[in-house]
Design brief:
mainly beta; 4-stranded antiparallel beta sheet; 11 strands; 49% strand; globular
Length: 124
């Protein structure tokens, strides 16, 4: 059993920053190797944003490279996404996801565990 709970979303103006958090828990949480952030805008497919493994290897979507940073705090079982220089096109529901395996590619199908999401809205 794995539970992932996101927080930190909100409304911000273009150029602003937000930090998303994802708190993990459950009897099977220790088996998770890879954690990732995905997002889904209305009418769009869910897309990968960034992921990180136990050795802190990271991978980012081209659209967020240089602006977003993914990190994890093992002591707190928490995943973070620091988002800077936000753009209106970053507006979406952001989801935390977990996998027992590491795949560099940001494929939704690689992740078995999902949170409920947190909304990010960026106004121009």
């Amino acid at each position: 059993q794995v539970e992932l709970v996101e927080s930190g979303g909100g409304s911000v103006q273009a150029g602003g920053s937000l930090r998303l958090s994802c708190a993990g828990s459950g009897s099977d949480y220790s088996t998770i190797t890879s954690l990732g952030w995905f997002r889904q805008a209305p009418g769009e497919e869910r897309e990968g944003v960034a992921n990180i493994d136990r050795e802190s290897r990271t991978n980012y979507a081209d659209s967020v490279k240089g602006r977003f940073t993914i990190s994890r705090d093992y002591a707190k079982n928490t995943l973070y996404l620091q988002m800077n220089s936000l753009k209106p096109e970053d507006t979406a529901m952001y989801y935390c996801a977990g996998s027992d395996y590491w795949y560099p590619a940001l494929r939704r199908s690689s992740y078995a565990y999902w949170g409920q999401g947190t909304q990010v809205t960026v106004s121009s």
